[in-house]
């Protein structure tokens, strides 16, 4: 134990140093660029200690987009950049929803959503839902049945226009839904499309969605455009093969309908934006800052240095981390910077390979082994030593202040650090210590590959601590630090997560106003059969979990959902396909000459109100 304590001290010291100058921990995909980015601005622009006087703000990010075709991206960096160009049509601020592109959020109360009974019999040709199961074959019916069908209608705000002056219409939202449904489009999930009977145009500014009979969805108001994204320009992409869009010029310069348009995209370096004259808020003088540059820098130490030197004006959660708190607190004490620490819905976790996709046997098929690992890891020590004690451990797939977190504390086992309990569970699972202290079962040592993202100092420090905790109970974990976009998060069979080619993996998920129950559905396990669409990267499948999780999604009122969500979390907490580690703290910084920048705990976009920012001259 003394030797482990010395190693622990060394890791923590290294982690603290690296975290002050390392890469961001705030999203699931780090940058893959290897060269320091240099922003290109107009001649005569001052990028010294103050923001330039001609209306340019430089936003630093430690990750770069994998593509700017948002439909095919799983990168938070893409989400951040596109928010300035193609803003979310419904925002999720402060655990609630706000309409952006629509005159109002459709609800059953205001008549924007209605439910009617429809007849389903042998002549019916589409899918339908019974007991939360999607059924495509009417032969299972013994006779005609009546099922409820939800219809939701959205009406666009006046004046929403593409940057080329073409009005954004209902056709663009319906076209986006077609792209989602097209098998040539590489999307993470087609869940909404699979539960859609049809989209229907009412007029140029109005369209409706019809759910399949029997499908009831608590977030029905987000089912526009095939999901909670926005429109795509039919007049530009309507005759283009969907499978080619992601590799086309459009994926580098998508058409804007938001406050800014893209002037230039240099992958791994920068995206240069200018005010969109056809933005619907232009008549109100928006955006207030005429030019924005997203600058991609390879590590947090460079972000911090360039923030201090004036080469960067604003940084959000993809660029700063809690590990930099000492340095940031020093900046906050001065007169130049506003530093923000906001509790986040992003949560770091360890996925277990419950069932690998490459056919390799996994010790984590046994829930007792997964529980043993949970008891072996001292999450509170990780928080105190690496994260300055500024966050809390998580025990479910949502924070404990979420509206859906179980009110009964007995529902959730917190897996308090207990290495003796871990060893007991491992022994009960047939693992016994070998001569070198490493556990052995059926002649095979308990040796695993433990993946996380490279260039991410805080994650690497956490991974090193986990490695030590596991070794103390006899598990030999080989650390693998790999690129995010090109390896860990790569789509398809070759992806480490999507292809389930790992034993344990450390990365992050994002929760929000809605519980993250769909993450662990059987149907969301990525496989060759579903085109690797789905994010249940553990391979976990429990029909009991699916039953209550899907039923919770079909109930509209929150009060009726709570008991089911509690059951779902209890099953998850017992089966433990994923070990939640801790809730992250979003960290942001802006020069005090910029007003309006404010992080929100439940927004996936740090710069959700960028059009209202003002720059002191």
From TrEMBL:
- Please indicate which superkingdom the organism of origin belongs to: Bacteria
Ranges for the region named Disordered are 23-53
Which parts of the sequence belong to the Solute-binding protein family domain? 152-521
**Which keywords label this protein?**
Signal, Transport
Signal peptide as annotated in the record: 1-19
Which Pfam families does this entry report, sorted A to Z? SBP_bac_5
The Low complexity compositionally biased stretches are 23-34
Family membership = Belongs to the bacterial solute-binding protein 5 family.
Q: What is this protein called?
A: Solute-binding protein family 5 domain-containing protein
Which species? Herpetosiphon gulosus
């Amino acid at each position: 134990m003394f030797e482990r304590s010395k190693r622990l001290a060394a890791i923590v010291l290294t982690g603290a140093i690296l975290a002050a100058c390392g890469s961001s921990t705030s999203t699931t995909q780090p940058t893959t660029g290897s060269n320091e980015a240099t922003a290109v601005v107009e001649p005569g622009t001052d990028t010294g200690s103050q923001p330039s006087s001609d209306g340019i703000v430089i936003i630093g990010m430690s990750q770069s987009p994998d593509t700017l075709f948002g439909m095919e991206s799983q990168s938070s960096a893409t989400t951040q950049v596109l928010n300035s160009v193609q803003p979310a049509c419904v925002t999720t601020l402060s655990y609630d929803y706000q309409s952006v592109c629509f005159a109002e959020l459709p609800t059953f109360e205001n008549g924007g959503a209605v439910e009617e009974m429809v007849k389903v019999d042998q002549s019916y040709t589409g899918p339908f839902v019974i007991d939360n199961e999607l059924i495509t074959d009417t032969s299972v019916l013994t006779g005609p049945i009546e099922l409820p069908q939800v219809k939701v209608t959205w009406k666009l705000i006046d004046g929403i226009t593409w940057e080329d002056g073409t009005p954004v219409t209902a056709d663009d939202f319906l076209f986006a839904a077609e792209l989602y449904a097209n098998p040539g489009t590489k999307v993470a999930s087609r869940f909404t499309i699979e539960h859609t009977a049809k989209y229907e145009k009412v007029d140029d500014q109005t369209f409706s969605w019809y759910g399949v009979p029997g499908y009831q969805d608590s977030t029905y108001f987000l089912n526009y455009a095939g999901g909670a994204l926005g429109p795509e320009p039919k007049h530009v992409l309507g005759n283009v093969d969907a499978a080619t869009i992601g590799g086309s010029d459009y994926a580098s310069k998508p058409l804007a309908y938001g406050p800014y348009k893209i002037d230039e995209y240099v992958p791994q370096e920068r995206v240069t934006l200018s005010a969109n004259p056809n933005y619907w808020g232009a008549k109100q003088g928006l955006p207030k800052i005429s030019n924005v540059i997203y600058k991609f820098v390879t590590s947090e130490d460079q972000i911090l240095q360039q923030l201090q030197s004036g080469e960067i004006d604003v940084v959000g959660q993809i660029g700063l981390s809690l590990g930099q708190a000492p340095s940031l607190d020093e900046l906050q004490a001065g007169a130049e910077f506003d530093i923000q620490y906001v509790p986040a819905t992003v949560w770091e976790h360890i996925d277990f390979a419950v069932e690998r996709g490459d056919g390799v046997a996994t010790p984590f098929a046994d829930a007792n082994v997964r529980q043993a690992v949970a008891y072996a890891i001292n999450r509170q020590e990780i928080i105190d030593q690496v994260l300055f004690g500024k966050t809390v451990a998580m025990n479910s797939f949502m924070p404990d202040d979420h509206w859906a977190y179980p009110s009964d504390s007995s529902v959730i086992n917190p897996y308090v650090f207990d290495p003796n309990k871990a060893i007991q569970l491992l022994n009960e699972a047939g693992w016994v210590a070998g001569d070198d202290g490493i556990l052995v079962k059926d002649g095979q040592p308990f040796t695993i590959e433990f993946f996380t993202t490279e260039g991410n100092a805080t994650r690497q420090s956490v991974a090193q601590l986990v490695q030590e905790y596991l070794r103390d109970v006899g598990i030999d974990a080989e650390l693998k630090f790999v690129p995010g976009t090109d390896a860990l998060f790569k789509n398809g069979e070759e992806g480490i997560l999507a292809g389930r080619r790992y034993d344990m993996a450390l990365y992050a998920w994002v929760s929000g106003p809605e519980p993250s129950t769909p993450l662990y559905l059987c149907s969301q396990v990525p496989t060759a059969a579903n085109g690797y669409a789905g994010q249940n990267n553990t391979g976990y499948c429990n029909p009991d979990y699916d039953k209550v999780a899907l039923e919770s999604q079909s109930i509209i009122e929150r009060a009726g959902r709570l008991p089911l969500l509690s059951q779902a979390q209890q099953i998850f907490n017992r089966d433990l396909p994923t070990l939640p580690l801790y809730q992250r703290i979003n960290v942001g910084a802006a020069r005090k000459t910029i007003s309006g920048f404010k992080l929100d705990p439940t927004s996936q976009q740090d710069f959700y109100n960028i059009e209202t920012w003002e720059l002191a001259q």
